[in-house]
Design brief:
This protein has two helices and 43 strands. The protein has about 400 residues and is mainly beta. Among the domains are: about 25 residues; about 80 residues, no CATH class; about 110 residues, no CATH class. The longest helix has 25 residues.
Length: about 400
């Protein structure tokens, strides 16, 4: 008798697919609002806790499931089984795409949208809405100057649509606007990565709310996240850099680049003082050094002694127990000083300085034998001081 292992694997895969599909059908049929005429309940399910059900403070006789997670009775409104504060159940209606309205408010999910005109409010997509005064992107006002010429430059239902325009401004959606030189030619810069923080017309390149001075709109493209390139040079956000070609750079980590000769910061500033030959990552979280300098998160730590730098390992104090650790935190020291991130703490004693995490929430106490520099839980800190060695 010959056994086909491929057939066994295929059958096992088929059974698994059927099982997952049936589980999905069973679960999907058992979630949402249930009204048996006597009580209204809401049923939910997730992988960690399984099936959950709770009773709603709702009138079964007037209860109505509005779809999109919304429901109401004659007094209250609900989203996904939870009562919406300040909502008037009697006048509450779902507008679709996660928006709802009652006699007094417009809601996005369960949050009130302030300063919108209720009577003229309408929904175009899950991101774009409008009233008589303005357009809104993901609930944020766009501050449109001329609604008659306003257009979205992309899909109004796509989260990565970042630009719009009218005859006066280019709009970085819901965040800022910039005066533009030419309405007809204004367009987002095409990119293969999800950013689109740049736009251009035939006269200028724009970064969010400002002009990228000196940039050539004909040759400009986005080389990386928030990094532009034209025929002449590289730009970091809206600022020109000394770098001619972004491809000449190698990204060393989240904070530094190199062209093989110089070290560059995250902002593409050439660090003339840095020694590339001795540049290295320290055995301290997010710390780097060369023979003369130390950087924390890419920021220069002034006044630190490279030869004697050490991490300060925090102590955990949980349920009356003191636990030593060997991991790094945001505190450093050398033979003379203590540092928090990239800043020196004046007068702190490196020989007696300690950092204690108080409780499971990780509230911090930082102190030496003379001073307390940070304390987020005075009661737990007092307990620790009473039992420490």
């Amino acid at each position: 008798m010959t056994i086909s292992f491929n057939r066994i694997k295929t059958n096992q895969l088929y059974i698994l697919i059927v099982f997952v599909f049936c589980t999905f059908l069973i679960v999907s049929c058992d979630i949402g609002y249930k009204n048996d005429g006597k009580v209204v309940t809401y049923h939910s399910w997730n992988e960690s806790s399984g099936h959950s059900v709770w009773k709603l403070d709702a009138n079964p006789a007037t209860f109505e499931n509005l779809g999109d997670g919304y429901a109401h009775d004659d007094k209250h409104a609900f989203l996904d089984g939870h009562m919406i504060d300040s909502a008037d159940g009697k006048t509450f209606k779902s507008l679709g795409h996660g928006y709802a309205i009652d006699a007094n408010h417009v809601f996005h999910l369960s949050q009130i949208m302030d300063s919108v005109d209720i009577k003229t409010f309408k929904v175009h997509s899950q991101y774009l809405t409008e009233d008589k005064n303005d357009y809104y992107w993901n609930t944020l006002p766009i501050h449109v100057a001329d609604k008659s010429t306003f257009v979205i430059l992309g899909n109004n239902g796509a989260w990565d649509t970042n630009w719009a325009k009218d005859k006066k401004y280019g709009y970085y959606m819901g965040q800022s606007r910039v005066a533009i030189a030419d309405y007809k030619s204004f367009h987002p810069i095409k990119t293969m990565i999800i950013s689109s923080v740049y736009a251009a017309d035939k006269y200028h390149v724009y970064y969010e709310d400002r002009i990228v001075k000196g940039a050539d709109p004909k040759t400009f493209f986005e080389a990386a996240w928030g990094i532009g390139q034209d025929a002449k040079r590289v730009y970091y956000k809206s600022e020109a850099t000394s770098i001619k070609d972004y491809k000449s750079l190698k990204k060393l980590n989240s904070y530094f680049y190199t062209d093989g000769k110089y070290l560059y910061s995250e902002e593409l500033v050439r660090l003339e003082y840095a020694d590339l030959n001795t540049f290295r990552k320290l055995d301290i979280k997010d710390c780097f050094a060369d023979k003369n300098n130390v950087w924390w998160h890419g920021k220069l730590v002034k006044g630190i002694d490279v030869a004697t730098i050490k991490p300060i390992h925090p102590i955990c104090y949980i349920n009356g127990e003191i636990i030593a650790t060997n991991y790094s935190c945001e505190w450093l020291k050398d033979k003379n000083h203590v540092f928090y991130k990239d800043s020196m703490i004046p007068d702190a004693d490196p020989n007696t300085f300690k950092v204690v995490y108080l409780g499971r929430a990780g509230r911090i106490a930082a102190f030496d034998q003379k001073h307390v520099y940070q304390c987020e839980d005075s009661i737990a800190f007092k307990e620790y001081l009473e039992i420490r060695p």
